[in-house]
Amino acid sequence: MGSNQGPAGSGEANVEKSKEHGVLYIGVDLGTSRTSISASNGVRATVASLVGYPKDHVARKLLKRDVLFGEEALEKRLSLKMFRPLERGVIKGSEKGEFTSPEAKENLEAARALIRHAVSLAQPRPDELIYGVIGAPAQASIHNQKAIIEAAREVMDAVMLCSQPFSVAYGMDWLEDVLVIDIGAGTTDLCRMHGTMPEEGDQITLPTAGDYIDEQLERHLAEACPGAAFSRPMVKRMKEKYSFVGDAADRIEMELPVDGKPTTFDITEAMRKACRSIVPPMVESIHSLVRSFDPEFQDRLRNRVLLAGGGSQIQGLDRALEQDMRTRLGGGRVIRTEEPMYGGANGALKIAHDMPKEFWEQLS
Amino acid sequence: MSGADRRSLWGELAAFFRTTSVDKLKSAGVGKVRVIGMDQIARLVEDAVDRVIESRRIELEEREREFIVAEAREELDRLTREVRELTHVRERTMQEAALSQRRVDELRLELQRAGQELEMAQRDVRAGAMGASPEDLNQGLQRLVSEALGEADRAKSERLSARLIAFVSGYVERQREVVREVDPAAGEQIAQLERRMAKLKSRLAQAEDELSRTLSGAQVEPGIASIYRGVQGLDQSSGQFKKKQGLMDVIFQANLKIQKGAE
Ligand SMILES: Nc1ncnc2c1ncn2[C@@H]1O[C@H](COP(=O)(O)OP(=O)(O)OP(=O)(O)O)[C@@H](O)[C@H]1O
Ligand SMILES: [Mg+2]
């Protein structure tokens, strides 16, 4: 078999995995709310970080599966035992390195299943080598890291972890003096990068992120839409559709039921206020990370602020931050990653690609 | 698995089914049939197929398919073996059923004899009671016995007639029970057997369909090939090559440290 033979020739007897058949690189971003994957076969996939097991035999027969993931699991949650196995980017309960309680074990198994599932979403060919890089939070402990690696080794031929903010920055070819801001569901993580591993003082974690905006929006909507009924998931969907800060391009009008009757409300201000609520703490943290940086490179750092994560999709957020930074820090430049939902995964993919052959071989 | 393989498996299983009717069984004198293992066989088939399907609900590649086909085949071979074993058990049960049938026949005969005896006894009772005021069986028998034995041994004749009465009524009751057992319940059980067999057949067909669906789905999902044939590594002409090389080394060393400890 020639080394340049395509997949069409792979039906022959030689089924050994080898580089002759190809190498699939995979970049993974393990998030509390979403797990995203980018692969060197062009696949991009994301799944809500949820795992559900049928509650009993009847449910299993009905669902015809032993485990469900993401939105599908959420939909069928009534007949499932649900797990959200990741917390702050690491496997829940992996802090001590041993999973003693039954719940901890179940959770670990759910995390493994989720990683397996994420890799399967990349649709790898079984005869290809899979080399994966997973972005883990910079503050992940050694036990946290081992747990992720062990889970990933089940489906990858070799795996490496790197810090999440580093992978985001690497994906943009910004190798140092970058301030990465990852706006997730539970937290906004700001991280100053000047190497591969940030240190203690390089990082600030804020609770003002996606979930916080949802809370704020719900509160503001209650005022703006008296008598209207809405649920938290509805509020979140509204946010993901209309989020913005700064000048509104158009008024946002929504039909909400009041006493069962659809009524139109203008939610522009409620949306602006809710989304805006995460800006001041962020600017405050940017300021503190810049101020405490090597004075020679402070100017460079405030001009290299990189936004990533689902929350970075808020319309006008980059400009709003720049505006506030002008007042607070005398200037600065904010840039968004190209694919906000895949910033971490794309960066991890690029690292996997750039990693020398002998390194991969030593780990496989 | 090819269609021919599936057909041959089906044929093999189908060979174990014998179609029969309630009437045929009845006319063969089968009164009572113990229904064994049919549910179990169905569950077995289902479980075997389920196991293969569920454990393989992942994207399959052609070469892996071969392996799975072999695995499925093995599972089904095992299943066939178990069905065969169960068939032996069933055959043994059929023999037992035939045995019970003979017993039923004997009982029927005995019943008939008992009926005749009873009739005779009743006739005797009636004859014994002839001319006398109407009395019950009890008294008739007593008279019959005392007549037979004469007045000589009154105590003995009383004891004997009491035993005779107990025997006759006990016998009749026993025979009644036998009749009850043999007749309507038998028909119901045969019908139940047929229902179960029909259910098994449809379950088998269902499981077979699912297997073929899974296997044909597997054929069209071989995965998407990576754009890379070999390990890439950092491109020498890439901007900041030296810097990136250093960063890759740092990441690798950190991972080497964790993973060597982990293994
Ligand atoms: N268009 C949008 N506008 C505003 N927020 C959005 C938008 N799309 C998604 N989000 C929010 O982004 C958050 C999820 O972001 P992301 O997927 O990066 O989180 P995560 O990495 O799983 O979480 P964490 O970083 O806390 O572990 C959710 O709160 C979601 O509502
Ligand atoms: Mg995240």
The major pleated sheet of chain B works out as:
none
Q: Give the largest interface pair and sizes.
A: A-B, 56 and 42 residues
The CATH architecture of the largest domain in chain A can be named as: 2-Layer Sandwich
Question: How many beta-strand segments of chain A?
Answer: 17
CATH C-level label of the largest domain in chain A:
Alpha Beta
Average of the residue pLDDT scores of chain A: 88
- β-strand percent of chain A reads 15-25%
Number of separate structural domains of chain A: 3
Q: Tell me, briefly, the overall form of chain A.
A: globular
Sequence-ordered SSE layout with sheet pairings:
The complex is a heterodimer of chains A (364) and B (263).
Chain A: E1 23-30, E2 34-39, E3 44-48, E4 51-54, H1 57-63, E5 68-69, H2 70-75, E6 80-83, E7 86-87, E8 90-91, H3 102-121, E9 129-136, H4 142-153, E10 158-163, H5 164-171, E11 178-183, E12 188-193, E13 203-206, H6 210-224, H7 232-242, E14 253-258, E15 261-266, H8 268-276, H9 279-291, H10 298-302, E16 305-308, H11 317-329, E17 334-336, H12 343-354, H13 357-363
Parallel strand pairs in A: 1-9, 9-10, 11-16, 16-17
Antiparallel strand pairs in A: 1-2, 2-3, 4-5, 4-6, 7-8, 11-12, 12-13, 14-15
Helix pairs in contact in A: 3-4, 5-12, 6-7, 6-8, 9-11
Chain B: H1 3-14, H2 22-27, H3 38-55, H4 62-129, H5 137-149, H6 154-182, H7 184-219, H8 241-262
Helix pairs in contact in B: 3-4, 3-7, 4-5, 4-6, 5-6
Bound molecules: adenosine-5'-triphosphate (ATP) and magnesium ion (MG).
